[in-house]
Amino acid sequence: MSDTATRLSVSTPAPGISVIEIAGEVTRESDSALREAYEQAAEGARSIVLGFASLEYMNSSGIGLLVTLLVRAQRNKQQILAYGLSEHYRQIFELTRLDEVIAIHDSEAAALAAAA
Amino acid sequence: MSTQPDNRDAAGWARPVRHLTGADGHINVTGRRPTAPMNGFGRMWQKTYRTRVGDDSLEPTAVITVWKEHFSELWPAGNRFFAPLAGIAPGEVAALDLTMPGGLKLSTGVLVLFADEESFTLMTPQGHMFAGWITFSSFVEDGSTYAQAQVLMRAGDPLYEIGMSLGGHKQEDAHWSHTLTSLAARLGASEAVEVQSVCVDRRRQWSRAANVWHNAGIRSGLHMASAPVRIMTRPFARGAKA
Description:
Strand content of chain A: 25-35%
Mean pLDDT of chain B: 90
Shape of chain A: globular
Mean pLDDT of chain A: 93
Largest interface: A-B, 33 and 38 residues
Oligomer: heterodimer
Order of helices and strands of chain B: HEEHEEEEEEHEHH
Largest sheet of chain B: 9 strands, antiparallel
Distance between the termini of chain A: 37 Å
């Protein structure tokens, strides 16, 4: 598996709000790609929205990467929001208690409204 | 909404549980909530232990199969992992007895959070010395096959945080280095174990200081100390046979 299994795109739909769209797979190989995407998204952002609508696979190492991303965001006083999680991944967020620290929304519009 | 999870995912994760069940008769397990690194008190650490176990003809899936089957045998003496009957499989709960500095036995457990052919992850419950998870994996890199244990954790409460800084980290490093050395030996390899510790977050979460209420070390100590009383009162216990 290579880095190309993780496809990330960063956008800034509104001032202070960045969106990282996560597609493909999130595993231990995604570390550098996710780190770079966060650094790009973090500039001037007070809220970072993670889009999971095109996520195909994430294992426990991938969840670990989200935790370290969350810590970096908290250090920078940024809130993290998420949308597009399937029922399966909502359950994973509940099991790993990520749902207690990442606000989960049903749609990108709802996440952006909450981030505004 | 997201696409359907692929088959690797559907079977790999434990189902959500609010409180652990199982590990019958073992204290500090049943009824405890699984904890993530965010739920602990101390600094957050990512500790990675890895060793080369062979060339790339050794499949990572073969390494993980051996690791799962012999997990408890690879631990250092004085520490016990009571494997679930179903083995290391998603959602299973295992009890642990760990020897702490000073000879105190710490009884706790783990939830198998994730398991597939190339990795598995154990998640700790409330009261464990740290909140977080440990991922065991195997992979091929530069023509060699490696085995790796990676811990993402915060000490569970202020007492554990003190304990970790007074030798706990060193003991944990020794534990996983021993485990990886034993695994490598079983696979016919004898390379050194590389250890990398990264402090992910230096802050302590004082809002989690009350986690000390569940401290499994204190509760294990009290359980041991009260053993004579339990033995003496057993004949008078409700339902005891005459």
